């Protein structure tokens, strides 16, 4: 292998410095897209050679091949590829460890591409055989192509943290939540929409008038009232935006995610349940609270960037001091409260669709009245329980009657069931939970990751 590289480079090329670029692992699919486009450009010939390295070897440096020294037992092989999602329904075969033997206007030179592996989590591209300035130009050209072809632009992505602490991005399907499925008082939903979607519609006019586009929206209220649900609705509407979703541990990655969002703007960054990390310390050298990092990242973003931050929390009281000390990060805070009688009526209708309910007007009114003080997710769960009650009496399901609905309601409202309610996240007052205790996971809050389907192959 060393002989192959040295043969391509010749004596002069072998004497040049090797230039290395490190990239975050999630860039692997963009790098491959860039390499595919770059290799296909006119006047360039690229031969791809796979490098097989026995397990337990961390990786190689191109310098080792150029000098032929300190080499692990390597073998030339067909290039190994890892099939990575490059969209919500497609994948791209990406080189794992390969040499690219290039001939173009700059001469003959070699690229070594090394994807993240068990032993080393970084993605690296190295150039050998060119003067440093020219090697940098090659890397710069690949940067431009990566940016232009970025597969994450305009997509809905869940941000994760790998066990090694690196940021990962998973494509999600577009949420199907429609406006009429979001049961909130009209002025509340209207205000949220105006802030999130309205600015987008007036982007050009706002910029022309010298007004900033960056904005922060805080949705707060008890668990199970629809904060996540509303965020899903907004994300479903904001097609064309790069949409990044951070929950739990991944909130600590807010700094690098904000940078990514700026590169891929217009973008939305949804920070779910920020109170859960409010007091956590980040891994950084300062060990500052994650919440501060989060607010600083929001502030660091360029004001003229078309960025929307949506924060959700069950504990606005915990956030208030931090927000008050850093004004301007959140410009609109909207309380999502417990549903009023009208909303409860609409929720019963919404979640009762498809259920063979046999209720009189009076039964419905009684259910609405008796459920005063519960959350929206409680009513959703109530209908599920009523169906179960009906199935218990009669299988297959024929009708869900007043008896079934009220039995389910009695059971859920029973004071001895408060732990069950907490576990279901259907009507618990977060203020009664000790600070820092895990919050209940709301029913049906899961975001569905797209499994991805096999698709295109790398092209060189
Ligand atoms: N305002 C609402 N309108 C319609 N459905 C709702 C509403 N609030 C909650 N739900 C239902 O309850 C589930 C849990 O609510 P969620 O949005 O996760 O609550 P949280 O406010 O804790 O984020 C949602 O997936 C949705 O099905
Ligand atoms: Mg939520």
UniProtKB/TrEMBL annotation:
InterPro entries: 26S_Proteasome_ATPase, AAA+_ATPase, ATPase_AAA_core, P-loop_NTPase
Keywords per UniProt: ATP-binding, Nucleotide-binding
Coiled-coil parts of chain: none
Pfam families assigned to the protein according to its UniProt record, in alphabetical order: AAA
GO molecular function: ATP binding
Domain AAA+ ATPase span(s) in chain numbering: 213-340
Key word Nucleotide-binding present: yes
SMART domains (alphabetical): AAA
PANTHER family in UniProt: 26S PROTEASOME REGULATORY SUBUNIT
Family stated for the protein in its record: Belongs to the AAA ATPase family.
Entry protein name: ATP-binding protein
Organism (species): Blastococcus brunescens
Lineage of origin: Bacteria, Bacillati, Actinomycetota, Actinomycetes, Geodermatophilales
């Amino acid at each position: 292998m060393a002989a192959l590289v040295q043969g391509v480079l010749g004596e002069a090329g072998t004497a040049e410095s090797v230039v290395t670029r490190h990239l975050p692992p999630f860039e692997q699919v963009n790098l491959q897209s860039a390499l595919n486009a770059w290799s296909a450009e006119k006047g360039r010939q690229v031969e791809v050679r796979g490098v097989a390295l026995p397990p337990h070897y961390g990786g190689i440096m191109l310098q080792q091949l150029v000098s032929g020294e300190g080499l692990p037992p390597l073998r030339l092989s067909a290039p190994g590829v890892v099939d990575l999602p490059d969209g919500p329904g497609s994948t791209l075969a990406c080189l794992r460890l390969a040499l690219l033997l290039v001939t173009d206007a700059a001469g003959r030179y070699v690229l070594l591409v090394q994807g993240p592996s068990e032993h080393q989590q970084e993605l690296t591209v190295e150039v050998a055989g060119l003067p440093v300035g020219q090697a940098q130009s090659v890397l710069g050209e690949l940067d431009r192509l990566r940016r232009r072809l970025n597969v994450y632009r305009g997509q809905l992505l869940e941000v994760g943290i790998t066990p090694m602490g690196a940021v990962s991005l998973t494509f999600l399907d577009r949420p199907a939540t429609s406006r009429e499925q979001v049961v909130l008082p009209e002025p509340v939903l209207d205000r949220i929409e105006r802030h999130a979607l309205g600015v987008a519609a007036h982007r050009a006019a706002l910029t022309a008038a010298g007004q900033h586009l960056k904005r922060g929206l805080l949705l707060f209220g008890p668990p199970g009232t629809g904060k996540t649900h509303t965020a899903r609705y907004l994300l479903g509407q904001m097609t064309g935006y790069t949409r990044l979703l951070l929950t739990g541990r991944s909130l600590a990655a807010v700094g690098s995610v904000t940078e990514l969002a700026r590169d891929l703007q217009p973008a939305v960054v949804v920070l779910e349940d920020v109170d859960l990390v409010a007091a956590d310390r980040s891994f950084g050298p300062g060990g500052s609270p994650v919440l501060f990092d989060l607010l600083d990242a929001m502030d660091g973003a360029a004001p003229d960037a078309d960025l929307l931050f949506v924060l959700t929390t069950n504990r606005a009281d915990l956030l208030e001091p931090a927000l008050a000390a850093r004004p301007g990060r959140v410009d609109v805070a909207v309380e999502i409260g417990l549903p009023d009688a009208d909303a409860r009526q609409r929720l019963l209708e919404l979640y009762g669709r498809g259920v063979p309910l046999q209720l009189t007007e009076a039964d419905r009114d009684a259910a609405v009245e008796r459920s005063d003080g519960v959350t929206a997710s409680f009513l959703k769960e109530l209908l599920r329980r009523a169906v179960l009650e009906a199935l218990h009496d009669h299988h297959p399901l024929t009708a869900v009657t007043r008896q079934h609905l009220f039995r389910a309601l009695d059971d859920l409202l029973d004071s001895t069931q408060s732990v069950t309610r907490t576990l279901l996240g259907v009507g618990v007052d977060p203020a009664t939970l000790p600070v820092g205790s895990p919050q209940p996971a709301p029913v049906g809050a899961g975001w569905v990751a797209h499994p991805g389907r096999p698709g295109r192959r790398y092209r060189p």
